[in-house]
Design brief:
The protein is of the alpha/beta class. It folds into two domains: 201 residues, von Willebrand factor, type A domain (Rossmann fold, 3-Layer(aba) Sandwich); 128 residues, no CATH class. 40% of the residues lie in helices and 12% in strands. The protein contains twelve helices and eight strands. The strands form two sheets. It has a six-stranded mixed β-sheet, with helices on both faces. A two-stranded antiparallel sheet has the order 2-8. Helix 2 packs across helix 8, helix 7 packs antiparallel against helix 11 and helix 8 crosses helix 9. The chain starts with 55 loop residues before the first strand and ends in a 6-residue tail after the last strand. The N terminus is likely disordered.
């Protein structure tokens, strides 16, 4: 493996739903725990109940975690929330789709050779905090990169079931020859295409080198797009006067969550941990996460009573008292429901404020881009690939951010 610094934008996700301003709220109390990052255990992520008419975006992200890929992993961490927001403009037949994300790593000596140096990190989930946590848990180590093997495993092992018009996408990124390993990449990509899955390849290096090492051939076989990333190209972050306002609103937003169930403490700590992780890369990146949390793809009905009550995914009368937040256990059920409704009103108001502030922020950033001459072309190249494939499935994109 040739050592190099490789910085890349690799994540494309869809998020969004209209949030209406509400004009009143009732006061209620909320317990807040210490805001600190913690080591996250691996937990299963319950999926939301989908109606037969719901359209899905299923995206599997496959990352090379061999020695030279530290920059790739860092950029995956930083770009998560940005791409969620950019692609939040997607809709189909006037409705917002359901987003499900899976994560694989490959090419790391710390992985089992018997499994082709491939590891499933997260099956398809809608829990964005969990995906962020998994990304921050990745580390690099020298290894053998077998693209055909990891593609065929992702096609065979993940649950790609869904409607014919669901958008199913694989993104695989790396910098070693695409044809390494005993499993044919052409056979793996053909298997993906036969299951209605696009395979997009991202070569971390020079464009012509990616062609000569079969990364373009992999994209052609997978009915997807081939892209290359310049190894020294860095992601540009634009700090704005609105970042601190969004950070303050994010703190207020956190206070509206009513964590319930056996994983309540873990979920709360993980939410705070991912806030802190996003802030590690600066205020601009943390602002992106705040905006993502105001969109409908940030839905936590498996552990938040407000989301679960709105989704009608639980019957509050059937929740065991021990699963309720401790400060609500001693009051009548009708009073608890009023508190949930109060929190929902307050949350919608805060989300509306976040989205309004974000419009001003984006306008400010656009002016900075023009002044600097940086149009963030790497990001746009990635978005272009996703949009092309989404349009084929009947998705459309709003001209402005309107979550």
């Amino acid at each position: 493996m040739r050592p190099r610094i490789i910085l890349i934008s690799t994540i494309c996700f869809f998020a969004v739903a209209a949030v209406n301003a509400l004009h009143h709220s009732r006061s209620s109390k909320q317990v807040i725990y210490a805001n600190k990052p913690v080591a996250m255990a691996q937990l299963p992520s319950p999926m939301p109940s989908d109606s037969a008419a719901s359209r899905k975006i299923k995206l599997a992200l496959i990352l090379d975690t061999s020695n030279s890929m530290d920059g790739l992993i860092d950029q995956a961490k930083t770009q998560l929330w940005k791409f969620v927001n950019e692609l939040s403009k997607a809709s189909v037949d006037g409705a917002k789709p359901i987003l499900q994300i899976a994560l694989y790593e490959y090419g790391n000596d710390g992985l089992s050779s018997r499994n082709g140096f491939v590891k499933l990190i997260a099956s398809f989930t809608n829990d964005l905090d969990e995906i962020s946590s998994k990304l921050f848990s990745l580390s690099t180590n020298g290894g053998s990169e077998f693209c055909g093997e990891v593609i065929q495993q992702s096609v065979s092992s993940l649950n790609w079931e869904g409607g014919e018009n669901d958008l199913k996408i694989i993104f695989i990124a790396g910098n070693e020859p695409f044809n390494q390993g005993s499993y044919s990449y052409k056979e793996a990509c053909s298997k993906a295409v036969n299951n209605g899955i696009y395979v997009n390849t991202i070569y971390c290096g020079a464009y012509e080198e990616g062609i000569s090492t079969f990364w373009q051939s992999g994209a052609v076989a997978g009915n997807g797009n081939y892209m290359c990333i310049e190894q020294d190209r860095k992601t540009v972050f634009y700090d704005t006067p609105y970042d601190k306002i969004l950070d303050s609103l994010n703190t207020e937003l956190n206070s509206t969550y009513l964590y319930y169930g056996a994983q309540a403490q873990y979920r709360q700590e993980n939410q705070y941990a991912q806030d802190n992780n996003s802030g590690y890369f600066g205020s601009a990146n943390k602002a992106e996460r705040s905006v993502s949390k105001a969109g409908s793809f940030y839905n936590n009905s498996s552990w938040d009573l407000v989301d679960a009550y709105n989704d009608k995914s639980i019957d509050v009368y059937k929740i065991q008292n021990s699963s309720w937040p401790e400060h609500l256990r001693a009051i009548p059920i009708q009073s608890r429901i009023l508190i949930i409704e109060d929190m929902n009103v307050r949350r919608m108001q805060i989300k509306t404020q976040i989205l309004d502030i974000n419009r001003l922020r984006l306008s400010y950033i656009d002016k900075l881009k023009v002044a600097s001459g940086d149009q963030n072309s790497l990001d746009e190249a990635m978005l272009k690939a996703i949009r092309e494939q989404a349009v084929k499935k009947g998705f459309v994109f709003d001209a402005i951010v309107s979550q």
